[in-house]
Design brief:
homodimer; 193 residues; alpha/beta; eight-stranded mixed sheet; two-stranded antiparallel ribbon; 28% helix; globular
Chain lengths: 193, 193
C-alpha cells in the first residue's frame, strides 16, 4: 500500500539493526485518519473472508483492529499481556516472547469472547518473527475457532514470521513488507510475496 | 449518557466489592459502533476546549480516545505501562498503582509527543481512585502542557478520583457515574455532580 510505504519512508526511523520505529503515527502517537485508511484497506482485502470477529493484541493492535472492524461491522477482541501469576481457568492462554523487549509474557483471552462458532480475522500492527501471531493462533486453536485471515500493517519480510504463516497456508495480507533495512535504508518488497 | 447507563445495566457484571466488569463491550471485547457513539459524545462535550491532542493510557483507553479523536480531528498519544528497568531519558514518566491489579507500574510518554505547546484532552475508559489520572497529569505537567479537560466513560463516583479532580478545578466529564453498586445493584448518580 503506497500510502503506508510513503509514510514509513517519511516518518519511520531505524533504531538499531532490524528495529523500525513508527511511533509518531502508528503505535505511540496515533494518526487516526491515517489508521482509518489502513483499516479500510484491510476491510477491503478481507471483505469476502466470512469473519465474525476480529482478534488483536494489546496495545498497539487495538486502533488498527477497530478501524477495520468499523468498516466490517464486527466486534474486536484484544488479547491481554500478563503473567502466569494471576491467571484463572476462565481464559485461553499462550506463552509469548517479545522481539522488541526480549521478555516473556502470557497472552490471554477470556473464554467468554472466543468460541468454536467464531471465524476469526487476526489483525496486528507489526509482524516480525511471528511470536505474537503464534500465540494468537494457539489461543484461537484452543478456543476451537476458525482463522480466515491475518491482516498486518507492517511486515518485516526479512524476519521469519511471514514466511512461516504463508507456509502454513494462512491468508496473510501485509499492507507494507520491508524486505531489508540495512544501514537505515528501507527497501520494500512485494506486498504479498 | 443514557445509552451507556443502559448498556452497563444490560451487560455489566459486578465481580466483588466495587468491581464492575464491562469487558463484553468496552475493555476486552469492543463494540466499535457503540464506542464510536461514546467518542462522539465526548467530542461534543469538549468541542470548545481548544484541545490540540488527546492523551490516554494503554490498553483500554485507546479505542475510546480514537473514537473521540476521529470527530475532533486530533492525534492520540497513549501512555505506556512498564517498569523502571528499561526506561531512558527520552520519556516523561510517573509512577502509578493499579486499582484493578494491586500492582505498581511506571507510566511513560515519549518526549517527542508531548510539549509545552500542547493543550491536552485526557480520555480514559474508567475513573476510580484516580491513580492513573494522577500519573497522566504528572506527565503533562512534566511536559509543560496545558490540560483543557478530562473525558471518562465510566466514573465510579463512590471512589475518590472524580471528587479529587473536580476539587482541583479540572473540567471533568464522565458519561456515566456509578454512585453505588452494593450487592450487585448498580445506582447511577448525576453525570457531572
Amino acid at each position: 500500500m503506497k500510502l503506508l510505504e510513503d509514510r514509513i519512508l517519511r516518518d519511520g526511523m531505524t533504531a538499531g539493526p532490524g528495529v523500525l520505529k513508527v511511533d509518531s503515527f502508528l503505535n505511540h502517537q496515533i494518526d487516526v485518519a491515517f489508521l482509518d485508511k489502513l483499516g479500510e484497506e484491510l476491510a477491503r482485502l478481507f471483505s469476502d473472508s466470512g469473519a465474525t470477529k476480529i482478534l488483536t493484541v494489546e496495545a498497539s493492535g487495538i486502533a488498527l483492529a477497530c478501524a477495520a472492524a468499523r468498516v466490517m461491522k464486527l466486534p474486536v477482541v484484544f488479547a491481554k499481556k500478563g503473567n502466569r501469576r494471576n491467571v484463572g481457568a476462565d481464559v485461553f492462554a499462550a506463552d509469548c516472547r517479545s522481539f522488541t523487549h526480549g521478555t516473556d509474557y502470557l497472552m490471554t483471552v477470556s473464554r467468554s469472547y472466543l468460541s468454536s462458532g467464531d471465524t476469526i480475522l487476526i489483525i496486528d500492527d507489526f509482524l516480525a518473527d511471528g511470536n505474537a501471531m503464534r500465540a494468537l493462533l494457539t489461543i484461537t486453536k484452543e478456543a476451537g475457532a476458525a482463522v480466515c485471515g491475518i491482516g498486518i500493517a507492517i511486515e518485516k519480510g526479512f524476519q521469519g514470521g511471514g514466511a512461516y504463516l504463508r507456509g502454513e497456508g494462512y491468508r496473510l495480507r501485509s499492507l507494507a513488507v520491508i524486505e531489508s533495512m540495512n544501514d537505515g535504508n528501507i527497501v520494500f518488497g512485494r506486498e504479498n510475496p
